[in-house]
Specification:
This protein has nine helices and nine strands. 36% of the residues lie in helices and 23% in strands. It has two domains: 172 residues, Rossmann fold (3-Layer(aba) Sandwich); 96 residues, K homology (KH) domain (GMP Synthetase, Chain A, domain 3). The strands form two sheets. A six-stranded mixed beta sheet has the order 2-3-1-4-5-6, sandwiched between helices. Strands 7-8-9 form a three-stranded mixed beta sheet. The protein is α/β, with parallel strands linked by helices. The protein is globular, with a radius of gyration of 19 Å.
Length: 290
């Protein structure tokens, strides 16, 4: 049996979380169209008769503008410590840029022998000529950054599943032999409280606009099943009103959508609190778990 850890890295919004969910076959990471949706290293588990693959979803590598951004980049970097394979994700709908080159270089440097798999994602939305150009440019960039890298390249669509089975097989082929880390019924080791907080934030991301998604943080402050209390933190009073909505309509819709993803009987309480400049304050980031 082959077992090991694979980290999925890339710039923000290249589709890492959607790809991780597709690889695992179940939802283990929240997704949205907003950059920097993922704020933690989250692990999903792929079970096969011949292998167990622990897939690590990560925040996007980017140039940080806040203390939160700095911590997210550090979190992504830490995910590259002691892994067996790295999957570097590139967006097929956008040119390969300096950020992608940085990711490819860090990916190759993270694993012995440069065991890097490059996934050119979103091929369902790109022209075939663009996909070929991204593959060639990524190969040239990785070859320049790490000439010794043992790399393979995969055009994939995390949305439709195209090419993902071949990517997973390539991951398995590169893993060492060893015992399973998790029981077969387990698809993620994310703590339940963090999972619920992330589900709340996912629903808020879908219902808010402009700068507000970046200003939202969520954490579970009480867990006495079936009662769960989740705190939503924003940076300004005006944002609090938007999150609550007229007559509480936004919070009600968020609560309904999240409860539908929880076991029957769950009672979810949502509260909104203003904490000014929390993205820039180390004490607030510590308290919020970043």
């Amino acid at each position: 049996m082959r077992t090991g850890f694979v980290t999925v890295v890339g710039r923000p919004n290249v589709g890492k979380s959607t790809l991780v969910n597709r690889m695992v076959g179940e939802k283990v990471s929240i997704t949205s169209s907003r950059p920097n949706t993922t704020r933690h290293n989250l692990r999903g588990i792929v079970h096969r008769p011949d292998a167990q693959v622990v897939v690590v979803d990560t925040p996007g590598f980017h140039r940080p503008r806040t203390a939160l951004g700095e911590r997210l980049v550090e979190t992504a970097g830490a995910s590259l410590d002691d892994v067996d394979v790295v999957v570097a994700v590139v967006d097929a709908t956008a040119p390969v840029g300096p950020g992608d080159r940085l990711v490819l270089g860090r990916a190759a440097a993270a694993v012995p022998g440069g065991r890097v798999l490059v996934a050119v994602n979103k091929v369902d939305r790109a022209r075939p000529t663009d996909v070929l150009e991204r593959l060639a440019t990524a190969a040239a960039a990785l070859g320049f950054a790490a000439p010794e890298a043992d790399a393979e390249y995969f055009p994939v669509s995390a949305v439709t599943g195209e090419g993902v089975d071949a990517l997973v097989q390539a991951v398995v082929d590169r893993l060492p032999e060893g015992p399973a880390y998790y029981p077969e019924e387990m698809v993620s080791d994310t703590p339940e409280a963090l999972r619920v907080a992330e589900l709340v934030r996912e629903q808020l991301l879908r219902r808010t606009r402009e700068e507000l998604p970046h200003s939202i943080a969520c954490r579970v402050t009480e867990w006495e099943w079936p009662r769960i209390r989740c705190e939503i933190v924003v940076e300004r009073d005006s944002q609090k009103g938007i999150v609550i909505g007229r007559g509480g309509e936004v919070l009600k819709a968020v609560g309904t959508a999240v409860r539908a993803q929880l076991p029957p009987g769950a009672y979810l309480e949502l509260f909104v609190r203003v904490e000014k400049r929390w993205q820039q304050r180390d004490d607030a980031l510590d308290r919020l778990g970043y």
